[in-house]
Amino acid sequence: MTATSAPAKKKLSPRKRAQRMRWINYAVLAVVVVLLVLFMDGRQLQQVFFRPDMIARTVGPDLLNALKNTILYTIGAFVFGLVLGTVLALMKLSQIRPYRWLATIYTEFFRGVPAIIVLLAFSLLPLAIPGLQIPLEPFGAVWTALGLVSAAYMSETIRAGVLAVPKGQTEAARSLGMPSGMATQRIVLPQAFRIVTPPLTNELVLLTKDSSLIYVLGLTAEAFDLTKYGRDLTNTYANMTPLVIAGLTYLVITLPLTYLVRRMEAKQRKATR
């Protein structure tokens, strides 16, 4: 006698399998939410992170001043980094080897060193160089330190944008008698910046968050950024509410920029179809 084989299990289709995984994820999420509701002390959470009297104390002219300073720190560092990053990108694309070597050493160094170390180094420069005064303190030091770091990242983005411009554009300009430098300035760079605008805007978002590192500097109350302002009140009143409010205020800057990045990326995708 021959043994009868067991019936083979019917395989699920990819659509059914994906649907099952979605339901499993929903179930896990529901369990997590239920556990949080059961075990969290809502009143204690509110007193530590969202205390009404501390919200009223935090929100006011000083918070707006800290927001303004954060925007100024970010914009100044971004402009500095954009200019220096463009120079570094062109140096990396240069036919002169020492330029390429210098640009490579710079980008590798500042991409590998934490931004907070660069900020601390700039804050200690007057001790190392007696009589040194950085203009527009503390803005000058922040713009320079964060700009040096962001330039290393932006240079790679700009270099990729330059390489994405068809070589025929430069060759056509050269055939019309335009010098190489003028062709780069008037034809290549404008097209490259249109290509890399979304990633550069994303770099602006990251730079906004990196500006929170300047709490390590000895700032006066007038020069506080959002993080320093929130930390100062949190330490004074031993409550996390000011720091939470300061963190949420960053969304005033980052959410519009993030939305702008998505819109620009969507337009670029449509243009390339």
From TrEMBL:
GO biological process, one term: amino acid transport
Coiled-coil intervals, chain numbering: none
Membrane topology reported for the UniProt record: Multi-pass membrane protein
Domain ABC transmembrane type-1: 67-261
Pfam family, one: BPD_transp_1
GO cellular component terms listed in the entry, alphabetical order: ATP-binding cassette (ABC) transporter complex
Transmembrane region(s): 21-40, 71-91, 112-129, 240-261
Gene Ontology molecular function: transmembrane transporter activity
Keyword Ligase found: no
Keywords: Amino-acid transport, Cell membrane, Membrane, Transmembrane, Transmembrane helix, Transport
InterPro entries reported for this sequence: AA_ABC_transptr_permease_3TM (IPR010065), ArtM/GltK/GlnP/TcyL/YhdX-like (IPR043429), MetI-like (IPR000515), MetI-like_sf (IPR035906)
Major localization class: membrane
Keyword Transport in record: yes
Gene3D superfamilies per the UniProt record, alphabetical: MetI-like (1.10.3720.10)
Subcellular localization, as worded in the UniProt entry: Cell membrane
NCBIfam families in the record: HEQRo_perm_3TM
PANTHER family: L-CYSTINE TRANSPORT SYSTEM PERMEASE PROTEIN TCYL, MEMBRANE COMPONENT OF AMINO ACID ABC TRANSPORTER
Family assignment from sequence similarity: Belongs to the binding-protein-dependent transport system permease family.
Protein name: ABC transporter permease
Organism name: Micropruina glycogenica
